[in-house]
Specification:
Blueprint (H helix, E strand, L loop, with lengths): L2 H15 L3 H12 L4 H7 L6 H40 L12 H4 L1 E2 L1 H15 L3 E2 L5 E2 L1 H4 L30 E2 L4 H10 L4 E10 L10 E11 L4 H15 L7 E8 L2 E12 L6 E2 L4 E11 L1 H6 L8 E8 H9 L12 H7 L1 E2 L13
Parallel strand pairs: 2-5
Antiparallel strand pairs: 1-12, 3-4, 5-6, 6-11, 7-8, 8-9, 8-10, 10-11
Length: 360
């Protein structure tokens, strides 16, 4: 083997054994750089005669080409290995996570959920839903309900009034959903069995009161309705709504202008732990007011109290939602805070039913 062959073999061996591009570059400089082994051979051609120069120059140039090709091939291989290494160790997922659709991300407000729960319960008992306007007149909101002229509820400290109209009357924002009962009794003949959920308005604002809140009232009018029926309806509602097997109820005498006799209803509860537990313990919690419809109310809607009788009740939807789901402040219901709604809200497809469960 001649000196040129040995030089080529030695350089190619160094090229193949180069572990990285830096080592390969060092081999290239040592072979093809300004002072490299092959470059030095080319510089020495000037001392040879023309025939020797032609023959040796051609051989050296061929070695130079083969070494250059080998270096380039090795460089490509090393770069591919380095790229694979970097792809494996420096991987970065730049894709966005799958966004929830409106059915998954959306939330039903607790008030809407509780309204649906109550509707499911009372519909199972044969009640229908009745609705009425938010803006009422004095007759439907007060007079027909046997509320006297001097009653505090008629004062501006409790009721939102509109400016006086051309006819001298002042409309108002309804203070309860009882006007719906009046409109229903004036619009249809007994038997009547309805609930009237909706917004009501009063001049009040603190941790347990807001100027606008939600209320549901129930009404039954027929020829034979009595207090026993009322007690059964309320007991069945409380058991279904609070999802307990049994609940003890206490009826205390009270006074409402539109019912006689009138009662406030307490249910048993347990306050000994961190949570209020309904249907357990020996404590009592007031949840609603009720009574037999006053004969004056029946006469105001042209029903004969000697023939017809009935019972009614009313409760705050927001408050029973607070009791059931442990929400401490009524004002947060209307604060438009998405964090609160995500925490206390319900999935859009969680439709309450007595068969599948109210609160899931």
């Amino acid at each position: 083997m001649g000196d040129l062959e040995r030089l080529e073999a030695d350089i190619l061996e160094q090229v193949d054994s180069a572990a990285d591009e830096a080592a390969l570059e060092a081999v290239r400089v040592a072979a093809l750089g300004k002072k490299g082994a092959i470059s030095e051979l080319l510089k020495g051609l000037g001392s040879l005669n023309p025939d020797e120069r032609r023959e040796r120059g051609g051989a050296v140039n061929r070695i130079k080409e083969r070494v250059g090709a080998a270096i380039q091939h090795r460089r490509d291989a090393l770069r591919e290995v380095e790229l694979e290494r970097r792809l494996a160790t420096e991987r970065l997922d730049v894709t966005l996570p799958v966004r929830e659709g409106p059915q998954q991300a959306g939330r039903i407000h607790p008030v809407s959920q509780v309204m649906d729960e109550m509707t499911a319960i009372f519909a199972d008992m044969g009640f229908s839903i009745a609705e009425g306007p938010h803006i009422e007149d004095d007759f439907h909101n007060f007079t027909a309900l046997n509320i006297p002229e001097e009653h505090p509820a008629r004062q501006e400290m409790d009721t939102f009034y509109f400016p006086e109209g051309a006819d001298g009357r002042r409309m108002l924002l309804r203070t309860h959903t009882s006007p719906v009962q009046i409109r229903t009794m004036m619009g249809r003949q007994p038997p009547i069995r309805i609930i009237a959920p909706g917004r009501v308005f009063r001049c009040d604002y603190d941790q347990t009161h807001t100027p606008m809140f939600h209320q549901v009232e129930g009404l039954v009018i027929d020829e034979r309705a009595h207090l026993g029926h009322l007690k059964w309806v309320l007991a069945e509602f409380c058991k279904a709504f609070f999802e307990v097997d049994d609940v003890r109820m206490r009826f205390r005498a009270s006074h409402f202008p539109f019912t006689e006799p009138s009662m406030e209803v307490d249910i048993n509860c347990d306050r000994s732990g961190k949570e209020l537990r309904i249907g357990e313990g020996d404590d009592w919690l007031e949840i609603l007011g009720c009574g037999m419809v006053h004969p004056s109310v029946l006469r105001a809607v042209d029903l004969d109290p000697a023939r017809y009788q009935g019972f009614a009740w009313g409760m705050g939807i927001d408050r029973i939602a607070m009791l059931k789901y442990g929400m401490p402040d009524l004002r947060a219901f209307f604060a438009a805070d998405l964090r609160w709604l995500r925490h206390y809200g319900f999935a859009t497809l969680d439709v309450p039913s007595l068969a599948g469960g109210l609160s899931r």
